[in-house]
Amino acid sequence: MMNSLHGFMPSLPLTTMNCSNEPEISPPTGVVSTGSPRHKKARALKSSSRRPAKALCSECGLCDTYYIHYVKDACAFLNQQFVPLETKSHGRTRDLNNWDDVYFGVHQEMMAARKHHPIPGAQWTGIVSSIAIAMLNQNLVEGVVCVQNTKEDRFQPRPIIARTADEVLAARVNKPTLSPNLSVLEEIEQSGLKRLLVIGVGCQIQALRAVEDQLGLEQLYILGTPCVDNVTRAGLQTFLDTTSRSPQTVVHYEFMQDFKVHFKHEDGSEETVPFFGLKTNQLKDIFAPSCMTCFDYVNGLADLVVGYMGAPFGWQWMVVRNDRGRSMVELVKDELDFQPVTSQGDRHGAVQQSIPAYDQGVTLPMWVARLIGIVIEKIGPKGLEYARFSIDSHFTRNFLYTQRHYPEKLAQHIPAFAQRIIQQYQLPH
Description:
Blueprint (H helix, E strand, L loop, with lengths): L36 H8 L26 H4 L7 H9 L8 H6 L4 E7 L11 H11 L5 E7 L7 E6 L2 H5 L15 H7 L3 E6 L1 H10 L7 E6 L8 H11 L6 E6 L4 E6 L4 E5 L5 H4 L5 H4 L11 E4 L8 E5 L2 H10 L3 E4 L3 E2 L3 H13 L5 H14 L2 E2 H22 L4 H4 L2 H7 L7
Parallel strand pairs: 2-4, 4-5, 5-9
Antiparallel strand pairs: 1-10, 1-11, 2-3, 6-7, 7-8, 9-10, 12-13
Helix pairs in contact: 5-12, 13-15
């Protein structure tokens, strides 16, 4: 259900997406009811290929609906607004004197978890699917926005509103490509649904939070996943072709805490490739510019976040941000094993060394990459320190990308918590 590469890759631009001129629509101010003249005007807009964010469009799906009327306020790449949206969603914003807040966002608790009995075919043990199914079965929600795949392609995302457990289960396993999850917003309003769970990544969730008051919902729950380095479907194929021994049989994969990419194949076999052995000279152009300018790796506006990067290998990292998130965990707590999050090692030297490697697109011989991987796995950062390593690496890279390609956006676009993280490192000019 998560669409992300979670990569360890160079910072160079993707070919600009097909985006036309910004529509001449005035942005909304304040809360707008679904019966207001402004909302009716938005409703009259037809879906089109308009992308006001142009090359920075993350294809979240908002602009495929009449909610494009709200895009100037809602789009994370036109109007970054972490502080007001965090306050609205969680009752407070991040404490910049608290490093856990700075890195991981507003939260009540973090823990590692895994299911006693994993769901067959799930990418992990199936915590996200289990929460969604429990919420449907207990009638807490009437639908779940999640991402299935098309019949033709297991990696091509198809957002749906799931109404049954079977429909939720059909959405298990990551779709590591740009996914228009919010393209179902019109269907939500038209369906008359009042209680909804949405599963999504940071850029989708910021846009959703910004238009939340326009949806006419009585209750909205958001289950987020961490996300970094998404690609188009063509970009994904390039990654698979250059990295896996059998790209046509890959069922799912993930960049893991042991500094390896783990591929699962149709026959059940697993394949690992060290991060440092990736053919970055062939992969330098596959990432979306939106991902190269994103600073919401940990999905700070979700009620609950389920990922992997802050947990031990084989466990899931869970971040409870507010009471809604806590209630979601309570639904499945008897199905889970828990352990506290831990932290080990020092990321700073590795991050500082990674900055020029990103810049130069360094590609190492595989034997060297495997050797480095063995050493790093033994002495490198683990647990929350691995999560900080990954965040630092991507934030420094993305700052440089934004500075070079969109210097006019630096002041407004990079949130204060990201600036604190970036300031720990020496960056090239």
